[in-house]
């Protein structure tokens, strides 16, 4: 099944699920190649179809996102508390390292470096207060940077006090340039 056999409503749902964060309505309309009224109708249908389920549609200031339904908050809170007591794990440490050495960095760059979707990990790091979300300089979503709490936890006062900071940052920049050039090789 490709995008042409999916309803507009299903396409919106798929994009929001994949992104894992809010998306500007104007960006969705452009990406989907639809008009504003058809988009609004599809959003209304999606909202109605999600009613009584575990997900809901969130809309605020021209941004739309998937979220958990109000009735699921107790369950989500329980799971969140359990998550916060666990170790970060390899994926969390990997993502945190990228944010530390490359931040501010957007999710797309993090996903490219890691080779997998990092939405869940970023949410976990945000909930723990280890990173902060800031508006992207290009105005296309959000970027992530280390929080002051993280720096205090690491016992450093400036980010450049991290081990081999300049060397690692330079390697990450070079890796990012290889992405821009369509080259997958890291020197």
Name of the top-level CATH class of the largest domain: Mainly Alpha
The percentage of residues in β strands lies in: 5-15%
Oligomeric composition of the shown chains: single chain
**N-to-C order of helices and strands:** HEHHEEHHEHHEEHH
Query: Total strand count, please?
Result: 6
Q: What's the arrangement of strands in the largest beta sheet?
A: 1-3-2
**CATH fold node name of the largest domain:** Arc Repressor Mutant, subunit A
Q: What is the CA-atom radius of gyration, in angstroms? A: 19 Å
CATH architecture assignment name of the largest domain: Orthogonal Bundle
What characteristic shape results from the CA principal axes?
globular
DSSP helical segment count: 9
Coarse structural class: alpha+beta
Largest sheet: 3 strands, antiparallel
Mean pLDDT rating:
86
Annotated CATH homologous superfamily of the largest domain: Winged helix-like DNA-binding domain superfamily/Winged helix DNA-binding domain
Chain-wise SSE layout:
Layout: H1 8-19, E1 23-24, H2 25-32, H3 36-50, E2 55-60, E3 63-68, H4 73-85, H5 89-102, E4 105-106, H6 107-114, H7 119-127, E5 131-135, E6 142-146, H8 148-154, H9 165-180
Antiparallel strand pairs: 1-3, 2-3, 4-6, 5-6
Textual characterization of the structure:
Keywords: Cell cycle, Cell division, Chromosome partition, Cytoplasm. One of its GO terms (biological process) is chromosome separation. It comes from Candidatus Zambryskibacteria bacterium CG10_big_fil_rev_8_21_14_0_10_42_12. Pfam families: SMC_ScpB. There is one protein chain. The protein has 9 helices and 6 strands. With 187 residues, the protein is an alpha+beta fold. The protein folds into 2 domains: 8-71, Arc Repressor Mutant, subunit A (Orthogonal Bundle), CATH 1.10.10; 87-180, Winged helix-like DNA-binding domain superfamily/Winged helix DNA-binding domain (Arc Repressor Mutant, subunit A). It has a 3-stranded antiparallel sheet. The chain has a 3-stranded antiparallel sheet with strand order 4-6-5. 18% of the residues are buried. The mean pLDDT is 86.
